[in-house]
Amino acid sequence: MSADPILEIRDLSIAVGGLPYVSNLSLSVGRGRFHGLLGPNGAGKTTVLRALYRALQPQAGEVLLDGQPQQGFSPAAWSRRVGALVQGGGLLSGLTPADIVEIGLTMRAMTARDRGRATQDALQLVGLADKAEQDAESLSGGELQRCYFAQLLACDPEVYVLDEPTNHLDLHYQLRLLDEVKRRGRTAIVSFHDLGIAARYCDYVHLMCDGALVAEGEPAAVLTRDVLCRYYRVDGVLEGHSLRLEGPVLDDRSAPAPLMHVAE
């Protein structure tokens, strides 16, 4: 597993509705590594990820893939290399899980037979093979999340951009699907609310607050008691892959601190 960057964000600033959501953010994502994007609600995590899969246009800065600016790729070429699992889905009327997975494969140079096989394999991985031809609108929230995960696994891009991938999933599928991404050895940049899950899977984490990067490094080095108090406003400590919480911090000890770069 190489640590050289495949994806780089340089001095990124993004405004939404005239309001600054991300300011002068820079980070690198190592090739073949699992990176976590962490922070409290409103930190700017989803905004950054939306820029990575081209749903938002930055006001300043750039995103590079293998040193090449994002603007130099066509949308189709970018999506073949950088694939995303996003919060919320599209229109489902008249579609089946098999349809949804195959839609993601339309830009791949594959025969119809190979697309069908890839679709079946992906639905099997996420436990939806028996519902492949069911109306997607009848699926539960967790089943829909697994369906969109199947679409991404079938495409198997070089870079997985996952925005809260454990939303709606029970514990079995949280572990099963993230294990599968990890097993493939692909690059991943993933936003998490669950810090225990982040510690389990991430090689490196980037902590955001108010649109800025405030700490980065290995999970155990970043997610200290002081950081949890300051940015998450909880009294807790990370013990291995488990977060032990004493309770909320009720007084105001969450003022921003200088950016911490924690050695790997």
Automatic annotation (TrEMBL):
<dbReference type="GO" id="GO:0005524">
    <property type="term" value="F:ATP binding"/>
</dbReference>
<dbReference type="Pfam" id="PF00005">
    <property type="entry name" value="ABC_tran"/>
</dbReference>
<keyword id="KW-0547">Nucleotide-binding</keyword>
<dbReference type="InterPro" id="IPR003593">
    <property type="entry name" value="AAA+_ATPase"/>
</dbReference>
<dbReference type="InterPro" id="IPR027417">
    <property type="entry name" value="P-loop_NTPase"/>
</dbReference>
<dbReference type="InterPro" id="IPR003439">
    <property type="entry name" value="ABC_transporter-like_ATP-bd"/>
</dbReference>
<feature type="domain" description="ABC transporter">
    <location>
        <begin position="7"/>
        <end position="235"/>
    </location>
</feature>
<protein>
    <submittedName>
        <fullName>ABC transporter ATP-binding protein</fullName>
    </submittedName>
</protein>
<keyword id="KW-0067">ATP-binding</keyword>
